[in-house]
Write a structure and sequence with these properties.
With about 325 residues, the chain is of the alpha/beta class. It is about 50% helix and about 15% strand. The protein has 2 domains: about 190 residues, 3-Layer(aba) Sandwich (Rossmann fold); about 110 residues, Helicase, Ruva Protein, domain 3 (Orthogonal Bundle). The longest helix has 22 residues.
């Protein structure tokens, strides 16, 4: 039974990935990361320069799953009601709730760091509570619900950096790189030539709900769980299990939500590998996208050119050396 379910999961995942890749050239790690976030019920933050296909990726995903898609272009003058919706007076002189763009299965929050903190807080409630409160009344968001936000890592004028509390609500932070020369050539051919085919619907919202339920059923052995927790604890600069690199470069390490996300993402990777149990390799594969945005580095890290990914590499080496069971990914 478990093997059959794992096989169905893999087949559905691969089918959706194949349809998305009809629109997205290359970026295989990015596409897989977004799909892992979807299967794990986690919101995804995409960071990359403009024009790298982030919007097209999210729209293609919604088409391949027959899910409602909504795009919110965040600007400094946007108000919370522009996201959540508001009560309006109808023809019968009674107030009724008009839903905002957040009421969709997949919501693209484009350039989310351009919104003011007040608007970001409205988005934070939707992400965490899966609902919004307007006029003292709660309105539930559709299921499944997934926020995919984008931000530009370079242009900072007119932006409001996301607070740590909101960053922590994102399951993954995925870095979107520039395409290779070969991929760029294919992009140019597709976009300047004949029209290409649109992604077809190969799964449904029921399939997404089933995938998410299956992920939670994947078991994890105590020693593997202990390894994952050691990775998280090693990022805490003042903790007993802190890695030396964390003590030197981290102001704060990962939150408990990071440990939860790490294990959940590892369960997805286990299913994709054809296993119905989590291995240490799964935890290592999920570590960077889960933890990179949950580390707060100090000024010394910036001066020494240390990035969250470099810190995590050293954290993993520290844990592997201490456990004397090095993991290769």
């Amino acid at each position: 039974m478990a093997e059959a379910e794992a096989q169905w999961f893999r087949q559905t995942f691969d089918a959706v990935r194949g349809e998305v890749q009809k629109a997205i050239v290359g970026q295989h790690d990015v596409v897989e990361g977004v799909l892992v976030g979807l299967a794990a019920s986690g919101h995804v933050l995409l960071e990359g320069m403009p024009g790298l296909g982030k919007t097209l990726l999210v729209r293609s995903l919604s088409q391949s799953l027959s899910l409602d898609f909504s795009r919110i272009q965040f600007t400094p003058d946007m108000m919370p009601a522009d996201v959540t919706g508001t009560n309006v007076l109808n023809e019968g002189r009674a107030f009724e709730f008009r839903r905002g763009p957040v009421f969709a299965n997949i919501v693209l929050a484009d350039e989310i760091n351009r919104a003011t903190p007040k608007t970001q807080s409205a988005m934070l409630e939707a992400m965490q509570e899966r609902g919004v409160t307007v006029g003292g009344r709660r309105h539930e968001l559709p299921e499944p619900f997934l926020v995919m936000a984008t931000q530009n890592p370079v242009e900072q004028e007119g932006t409001y950096p996301l607070p740590e509390a909101q960053l922590d609500r994102f399951f993954f932070k995925i870095l979107v790189p520039y395409p290779t020369k070969a991929d760029l050539a294919e992009v140019v051919k597709r976009t300047t030539g004949a029209a290409t085919s649109e992604p077809a619907a190969v799964a449904s919202r029921e399939d997404v709900v089933r995938m998410r339920a299956l992920v939670r059923q994947v078991p994890i052995a105590e020693n593997v769980l202990d390894y994952g927790l050691s990775l998280v604890v090693a990022t805490h600069p003042e903790g007993d299990g802190a890695a030396p690199v964390a003590g030197r470069y981290c102001r704060f390490g990962s939150s408990p939500r990071g440990a939860q996300s790490l294990v959940t993402a590892a369960k997805v990777h286990a299913l994709l590998a054809g296993r119905f149990n989590v291995a240490k390799e799964d935890l290592r594969k999920a570590m960077k996208p889960v933890l990179r945005h949950r580390l707060l580095l100090n000024f010394e890290a910036e001066a020494d050119g240390m990035t969250p990914d470099k810190v995590l590499d050293e954290v993993a080496t520290f844990v592997d050396t201490r456990d004397r069971d090095p993991i290769r990914v």
